[in-house]
Specification:
Layout lengths: L3 E2 L9 H12 L16 H18 L5 E6 L2 H13 L3 E6 L2 H10 L4 E6 L21 E4 L1 E2 L4 E2 L10 E4 L16 E5 L10 E6 L16 H6 L9 H16 L2 H22 L3 E3 L10 E6 L7 H10 L2 E2 L10 E4 L6 H18 L1
Parallel strand pairs: 1-13, 3-4, 3-5, 5-8, 8-9
Antiparallel strand pairs: 2-10, 6-7, 9-10, 11-12, 12-14
Helix pairs in contact: 1-6, 2-6, 3-4, 6-7, 7-9
This protein binds pyridoxal-5'-phosphate.
The site of pyridoxal-5'-phosphate (PLP) has 12 residues, from α3.
Length: 355
């Protein structure tokens, strides 16, 4: 049966990126060696990582003065690395969800945190910029709330570095990189298998803290060695490169934005129209990447039945996060429009049976 992969992360990747990785694991470009067993210092891998860095710079039009790093440790390690490298006394965090909360927890090890939040995570705080203390060392945002399904698609101007966790909407739309000090994320949502973390860092924001930083946690270590201070995640970086090539062939980040918007609009319209379902997030804050919905009150008891129905039709990963319940359809770059159409079809079919 054809599967429709709506997993939230690790998640769907372009088939061509997976095929290329499978080939390279057997034989890397006719070298007679597996990608999984070449040295990270070989000229073959050097070309791969350099091409990936350059392609990311090209696709996002990253200005001079920034470095693209591919590290281990996930976005979660960045929660600690960011304050380790940037915080002297104080930072402001826009708390828009579970991941932001985890970032705040780590930042508190290093200093004072201004925690800016709403009562709940179903909408984004409005006018929050005014709450950022002018003497903060940086301001941290999480552009997409993977779990509740809100998204902040705006670049901000502050008189301090803006740091963004873009794990779950990276490369799904253009961003003005010049407005950020650091953009980071786990690549397993939109770019690669789990294991590689991307960090785009502006070099002039570093070196301003008084504390000593352990070697591996210091961004300058990785900048100086161009992500090869120690063994990077070789195989995921190769897939990441193939995904970037696929993005380029499909219209770049503007093309990804068009795809994402079209698919998200289709699904949100059906959620609004269908008698059985309703969305959970304030309309103006809805994510294009993680589309959350629940059963309408009078159909609450059909939740499990719809889930089983969807599973029987080949749908994977549409259960909402355990802290929210209901359903979550993750609409990452590689998810084909046909999968969204198929989901809409079964929602309609279920409505015919039940409503
Ligand atoms: C998935 C996710 C993370 C965690 O990423 P890891 O690579 O597993 O540490 C952090 N932030 C956001 C927004 C996420 O979606």
């Amino acid at each position: 049966m054809k599967k429709h992969n709506f997993n939230a992360g690790p998640s769907i990747l372009p088939q061509q990126a997976l095929d290329k990785t499978a080939e390279a694991i057997k034989d890397l470009d006719g070298t007679g060696l597996s990608l999984a067993s070449v040295s990270h210092r070989s000229k073959e891998f050097d070309a791969i990582i350099k091409e990936a860095q350059q392609l990311m710079k090209d696709l996002l039009e990253i200005p001079e003065g920034y470095h693209v790093l591919f590290l281990g440790g996930g976005a979660s390690l960045q929660f600690a690395m960011v304050p380790y490298n940037l915080m002297n006394k104080k930072a402001a965090y826009l708390n828009t969800g579970n991941w932001a909360k985890k970032a705040i927890k780590e930042a508190k090890f290093f200093g004072e945190v201004k925690d800016i939040k709403n009562d709940d995570y179903y909408s984004l705080p409005k006018g929050w910029e005014k709450e950022v203390p002018s003497d903060a060392d940086y301001v941290h945002i999480t552009t997409n709330n993977t779990i509740f399904g809100t998204e902040l698609r705006q670049d901000f101007d502050f008189n301090m570095p803006v740091v963004a966790d873009m794990s779950s909407d990276f490369m799904s739309r253009p961003v003005d990189v010049s407005k950020y000090g650091i953009i980071y994320g786990g690549a397993q949502k939109n770019l690669a298998p789990a294991g590689v973390t991307f960090v785009i860092v502006r070099e002039d924001i570093l070196g301003k803290v008084d504390r000593k930083i352990p070697t591996l946690l210091d961004y300058n270590t990785h900048i100086e060695k161009d992500s090869l201070f120690h063994t990077p995640p070789v195989v995921p970086i190769y897939t990441l490169l193939q995904t970037l090539k696929w993005i380029k062939e499909n219209g770049g980040v503007k093309g990804m934005e068009k795809r994402a918007k079209e698919k998200a609009d289709m699904l949100y319209s059906e959620i609004e129209r269908n008698k059985l379902f309703k969305g959970t997030v304030a309309k103006e804050d809805r994510s294009r990447m993680n589309i959350c919905f629940v059963m309408n009150e009078e159909y609450q008891d059909l939740e499990k039945e719809f889930f089983d129905f969807a599973t029987s039709k080949g749908f994977v990963g549409i259960k909402g996060h355990r802290s929210v319940g209901g359903f979550r359809a993750s609409n990452y770059n590689a998810l084909p429009k046909e999968s969204v159409e198929a989901l809409i079809d079964i929602m309609k079919e279920f409505e015919k049976q039940k409503a």
